[in-house]
Amino acid sequence: MYPQGRHPTPHQAPGQPFKFTIPESLDRIKEEFQFLQAQYHSLKLECEKLASEKTEMQRHYVMYYERYYVLNIERHKQVSLLQSSFHQQQVIQAVERAKQVTMGELNSVIGVRVLPGLPPTVNALYYNFLCLFSVCVENGLDKTRLLKKDPSCSPASTASSASSSSLKSKEMGMRDKPGTPQPKSSTPTHRGDSTPGPSATPTLRPSLSKPPSMELPHPPTAGLRTPLAVSGPYPGPFGMLPHAAMNGELASAGAGYAGLHNMSPQMSSAAAAAVAAYGRSPMAGFDPHPHMRVPGMPPSLSGIPGGKPAYSFHVSADGQMQPVPFPPDALVGPGIPRHARQINTLNHGEVVCAVTISNPTRHVYTGGKGCVKVWDISHPGNKSPVSQLDCLNRDNYIRSCRLLPDGRTLIVGGEASTLSIWDLATPTPRIKAELTSSAPACYALAISPDSKVCFSCCSDGNIAVWDLHNQTLVRQFQGHTDGASCIDISNDGTKLWTGGLDNTVRSWDLREGRQLQQHDFTSQIFSLGYCPTGEWLAVGMESSNVEVLHVTKPDKYQLHLHESCVLSLQFASCGKWFVSTGKDNLLNAWRTPYGASIFQSKESSSVLSCDISVDDKYIVTGSGDKKATVYEVIY
């Protein structure tokens, strides 16, 4: 009846006779049952312990995943700093070498295009400097006047925050030398004498044509990062002069110098190709102080004295990259803002990973660790939240919060397997439902225009589709091989766009429930937004690029103003502009689709999230210094 090899029962001692009577057999069965019952309870406790350990391991997995991304971002930042320092040292050596040329040496060296020991890009700068120096001397300009600082063409106005501290200290040492111009404000000033004199242009020698070392057969399409900018005490005439009669723009020598000097070798090559193709300086029209802009003046004219290197590039179907010549109405016209003014700071108390604005614009919702706080911004003096919605676990961060179009329901997701649905119509907001998925975290949310369906980007790569009326999971879109990080839906509710940590952007047909397109990139996707009025999709990447894709054509635009990963992105309701934020503390506003920079705001910490009000009058951002910032958009 009992198999051999079974463990001895607790009641049977070795050497004792077996029990054969019916009562004894019943006692033995009873004891066996009690033993099995105890074993069952032991296994049940062990199973519960394993389940709790699994939950804890999933939590640690998400935590280590986040740490991995932070370390990866820091690694990219350090590599960029090392590359920036290397290029800066090369240019400084070339400029110092050029300063030591005398008139006696000039005539013997003017026919030499290269100097030994220097890279081709630096040799091109050096050669152009010699040619220009010769022209200035021939026209009666002495060296003292040539080196005189001119505010209208100072490359200091184009210096970005990426300049290293070692370079700044070296420049300060240079400025202390006798005969070196003193530092000045980087704010551009308009001067009447910024146009070169009539005696300078006609005597430019034919030898000022583009040197062979700057030829660019096919510009690279990958690996391009934010253009490096170097502030220095040297004036503009070290660069290539564009001919004012050829492009119809106000030319300054400093613009050409800044355009070549402030870029990486890949960027400078593309800029040189633009000089040959368009007959113009590789400077894109950009207004760093839009609130000082004169109405009606073309941006290509107002931006040159304090302009930046080309930062917007058109990438054709065959991968060729060209700087974008912005149209005259790029930064003017109805619906295009001039700048944004900070009007309120909401001290949340924790890192703000998610923000959203109500319609009409009255309340702002900020998501941090374990809670969403509600702020009334109709009265700017309010410094405290009007209510607090405790969500998820206290130690888990909110990653996304979305209002339904009627403004009466808020959906919250984050580092937990559940989504919380809040009823805001009651006097005190309350949770009316929770949606539970198999994924340990939700990274982003989207709501259908009819408010019937919610889409959640899960950390396992799936896109969960929820029926909000029945509060059930109706479908999962599977395709991303790593976490789905961002999402947006078309205004007609027929198409969904998702980005993932698997370096892909995918589109989904919501009527047929299938994948339509897939775009592959070399960088992880952190944010995206679909233009409400056009066929453009903006994508923010870990590599610091913003790419604007046409959804039906292969061409796209690539924008290079961020210096670190792009963490959030949002289109204005009018579709004419959009904003992006990043780990570089920047809020950038761009013109759709070609990416002319409308305005830029620098915050004190990484800007993790953003939203724009439905009337396009307000922007709110959430940052790593435990606050949200409210901006008023000025038109």
From TrEMBL:
Transcriptional corepressor that binds to a number of transcription factors. Inhibits the transcriptional activation mediated by CTNNB1 and TCF family members in Wnt signaling. The effects of full-length TLE family members may be modulated by association with dominant-negative AES. Residues 168-178 have a biased composition (Basic and acidic residues). The keyword Repeat applies. One of its GO terms (cellular component) is nucleus. Its main location: nucleus. PANTHER family: TRANSDUCIN-LIKE ENHANCER PROTEIN (PTHR10814), TRANSDUCIN-LIKE ENHANCER PROTEIN 1 (PTHR10814:SF29). PROSITE patterns: WD_REPEATS_1, WD_REPEATS_2, WD_REPEATS_REGION. One of its GO terms (biological process) is negative regulation of canonical Wnt signaling pathway. It is found in: Nucleus. Residues 152-167 have a biased composition (Low complexity). Residues 148-228 are annotated as: Disordered. Residues 196-206 have a biased composition (Polar residues). It comes from Oncorhynchus mykiss (Rainbow trout). Belongs to the WD repeat Groucho/TLE family. This is Groucho/TLE N-terminal Q-rich domain-containing protein. One of its GO terms (molecular function) is transcription corepressor activity. InterPro entries: Groucho/TLE_N (IPR005617), Groucho_enhance (IPR009146), WD40/YVTN_repeat-like_dom_sf (IPR015943), WD40_repeat_CS (IPR019775), WD40_repeat_dom_sf (IPR036322), WD40_rpt (IPR001680). Residues 18-112 form the Groucho/TLE N-terminal Q-rich domain. WD repeats lie at residues 435-476, 477-518, 559-590. Keywords: Coiled coil, Nucleus, Repeat, WD repeat. Residues 26-53 form a coiled coil.
